[in-house]
Design brief:
alpha/beta, Rossmann fold, 2 domains, 9 helices, 14 strands, globular
C-alpha cells in the first residue's frame, strides 16, 4: 500500500506547525513548500532531524518547486499575509485573493485528485477562491475554521467549569471570526447540555470571547495564532486520510442544507475519504437561524467583491 502524500503550502508558523504535527502522527510523507529561498528546506531538515529524537516513519521534504508536491492526496493551504497596521480589510482581501488564486492554480495543475484544506484568511472567501480556481468537485475543497473555533469555545468552557476539555463537544456554524454562530444547545460536557451547567449570561460571555479568540492572541503576541489552527487543519486531514467519517465543523459547500443556495460556509459535516461526505443539518431555532443567515449574508458580500477582483484581473489589458 502506497504512502499518503500531504503537501503544506506556506512554511510560516501555521504551515510549519501543520507539517510537524502531520509528520508526528505518521499520516504520510509531508512536502512543505514556500517561495522564500531556504525557508521550507531549513524547517523540513530540522523536522527530519527531530525524527531522530522522536521517530516517525514518514519523510519531510522542503521545497520551492511545485512539481515536488505532485500527486498529493491532501493539500493544506496556509499561504497569505496577516493584516498589519495601516492595512485595510480590503487590502488584505485583495492581496490574499491573488496569493490563494496563484496557489490554487498550481494545486490543480500538479495534484488534480487532491483534497484541499484552506487555512488562509479571510477564511470563508479564500475557500471560495480555491474552489473557483481549482474547479475541483465541491466535496474536495473545504476550510479549517469550525474546528479551531470549536476548540477555543471548548477551552474557555473548561476553564470556567474546571473540567477536562476533552469532555466538551461543541458545534459552531457560520463565518469565521465575529460572524461565527456558536450553538450552546448543541454543546455538551460529557453528554450534559451546556445550558444545564451555565446560565445564559455566562454562556454569552464565552461566546463573545470565542468570537474574539483570534484577536486576543494577536494582542498578546503581536501576530496570529498558529498552534491551534495548524492542529485543526491536521485533524481534518487525518479524518480524511483515515476515512474515519468524523463529524466536525468546517467551511464546506452548502447547496440546500440550512436554506443556503450555493456557498462555502461553516457547518457541521462528516469527513471521510471523499472529503466532505455529508453536511449534517441540525434543527435551528429562530434566533439561531437568523444569526446563521446574517453570517452567510456577510460571506456572500465578500464573495461578490472577490469575484469582481478576479474577473477584473482576468480581463486583457
Amino acid at each position: 500500500m502506497s504512502r499518503k502524500k500531504i503537501a503544506v503550502i506556506g512554511a510560516g508558523n501555521v504551515g510549519a506547525t501543520a507539517a510537524q504535527i502531520a509528520a508526528s502522527k505518521d499520516l504520510g510523507d509531508v512536502v512543505l513548500l514556500d517561495i522564500v529561498q531556504g525557508l521550507a528546506e531549513g524547517k523540513a531538515l530540522d523536522m527530519s532531524e527531530w525524527g531522530g529524537v522522536d521517530a516517525f516513519s514518514g519523510a519531510v521534504r522542503g521545497t520551492r518547486d511545485w512539481n515536488d508536491t505532485a500527486g498529493s492526496d491532501i493539500v493544506i493551504i496556509t499561504s497569505g499575509l496577516a493584516r498589519k497596521p495601516g492595512m485595510s480589510r480590503d487590502d488584505l482581501v485583495a492581496m490574499n485573493t491573488r496569493i490563494v488564486q496563484s496557489v490554487s492554480a498550481e494545486v490543480a495543475r500538479v495534484s488534480p485528485k487532491a483534497i484541499v484544506i484552506v487555512v488562509s484568511n479571510p477564511l470563508d472567501v479564500m475557500v471560495h477562491v480555491a474552489g473557483r480556481v481549482t474547479g475541483f468537485p465541491r466535496n474536495r475543497v473545504m476550510g479549517m475554521a469550525g474546528v479551531l473555533d470549536s476548540a477555543r469555545f471548548a477551552f474557555f468552557i473548561s476553564e470556567v467549569l474546571g473540567v477536562h476539555v476533552g469532555d466538551i463537544q461543541g458545534v459552531l456554524m457560520g463565518g469565521h471570526g465575529d460572524d461565527m454562530v456558536p450553538l450552546p444547545r448543541y454543546t455538551s460536557v460529557a453528554g450534559i447540555p451546556l445550558t444545564e451547567l451555565m446560565d445564559k449570561p455566562a454562556i454569552g460571555r464565552l461566546i463573545d470571547r470565542a468570537r474574539k479568540g483570534g484577536i486576543e492572541i494577536v494582542n498578546l503576541l503581536g501576530f496570529s495564532a498558529y498552534y491551534a489552527p495548524a492542529a485543526g487543519a491536521v485533524k481534518m486531514a487525518e479524518a480524511i486520510l483515515k476515512d474515519s467519517r468524523s463529524i466536525m465543523s468546517c467551511c464546506a459547500w452548502c447547496d440546500g442544507p440550512y436554506g443556503v443556495r450555493g456557498a462555502f460556509v461553516g457547518v457541521p459535516v462528516v469527513l471521510g475519504s471523499n472529503g466532505v461526505e455529508k453536511v449534517v443539518e441540525l434543527g435551528l431555532n429562530d434566533d439561531e437561524r437568523k444569526a446563521f443567515a446574517e453570517s452567510v449574508g456577510h460571506v456572500r458580500e465578500l464573495v461578490v467583491k472577490v469575484d469582481g477582483l478576479m474577473d477584473a484581473a482576468a480581463k486583457p489589458a
